[in-house]
Write a structure and sequence with these properties.
The complex is a heterodimer of chains A (about 80) and B (about 160). With about 80 residues, chain A is of the alpha+beta class. Helix content of chain A is about 20%, strand content about 25%. Chain A contains one helix and three strands. A three-stranded antiparallel beta sheet of chain A has the order 1-2-3, with no helix packed on it. The longest helix of chain A is centred in the C-terminal third of the chain and has 14 residues. Chain B is α+β, with helices and mostly antiparallel strands and about 160 residues long. In chain B, about 15% of the residues lie in helices and about 35% in strands. Chain B is built from two helices and ten strands; from the N terminus they run ββββββαββββα. A seven-stranded mixed β-barrel of chain B has the order 3-4-5-6-7-8-9. The mean pLDDT of chain B is about 90. The chains are: A alpha+beta (about 80), B alpha+beta (about 160). The interface between A and B is medium-sized, with 29 and 40 residues.
Chain lengths: ~80, ~160
């Protein structure tokens, strides 16, 4: 892993279209600004993991799976 | 066309039901073609992979139990599916039904968004922290109902 030291307001460039700015450092928290093209997805790592895990949990495993009754009437 | 499904055997669908998930679901990035199908029980729908019959999800309209659900949608978010206006899109939440019982939950943090016009879809990730991956559908539905009742009483 490449490790760089930066001060607040200093930037890191990745390729020619991604710019990362250290916005603020306060105690244990660092605020980071990211400028990137729309095609680059930016996530908090734990959020990304949570979505991936939930997708795996949501996958229907059993061929004989029966949908439950929600007793929810749907207006059409 | 006839497709193989996880739980319903062979099912006939038409082309309009086919959704192209541009990046797949997170954790299932290699699967792109799905069929959106009515299920045997409302208000659920099936989202069945056409590339692997074993890959099937249950989805639901999140607004049914969270009338206050909102997506912070900007143009960038809609770019991969080429949607021009919020009215072009359909929003669904993936449902988790634990095999051992327990609450039936919906993932409101990673909704499935489909462009009605070109049938391109994607899983969005909400970064605002208001929505998580496990919303108890029945509990939140009851809460929404009691809030609606309170509103009515307040007006009377």
């Amino acid at each position: 892993m490449l490790v760089l030291s930066r001060k607040p307001q200093e930037k890191i460039l990745i390729s020619d279209d991604i710019e990362i700015t250290i916005v603020e450092v306060k105690g244990e928290q660092v605020k980071i600004g990211i400028t990137a093209p729309a095609s680059v997805k930016v996530f908090r790592e734990e959020v990304y993991q949570a979505i991936q895990n939930e997708n795996k949990a949501a996958l229907v495993k059993d061929k004989k799976f029966i949908l439950p009754d929600l007793n929810l009437t749907v207006k059409k | 066309m006839e497709i193989k499904t996880k739980t319903m055997g062979l099912v006939n669908i038409n082309d309009e039901q086919i959704v192209n998930l541009v990046d797949g679901f997170y954790g299932f990035e290699n699967f792109h073609k799905f069929a959106l199908m009515d299920s045997e029980k409302e208000p659920f729908f099936w989202f069945q992979s056409l590339e692997d019959e074993n890959l099937a999800f249950i989805i639901i309209d999140p607004f049914l139990f969270r009338p206050d659900y909102e997506l912070d949608i900007d143009d960038n978010l809609l770019k991969p599916i080429e949607a021009e206006a919020p009215t072009d899109i359909l929003v669904f939440a993936l449902v988790t039904i634990p095999p051992s019982g327990g609450a039936i939950t919906a993932n409101l943090q990673g909704p499935l968004i489909i462009n009605k016009k070109n049938k391109k879809g994607m899983q969005a990730i909400m970064n605002d922290g208001k929505w998580n991956t496990k919303h108890d559908i029945i509990a939140e539905m009851n809460k929404a109902k009691s809030n609606a009742a309170k509103d009515l009483n307040g007006r009377a």
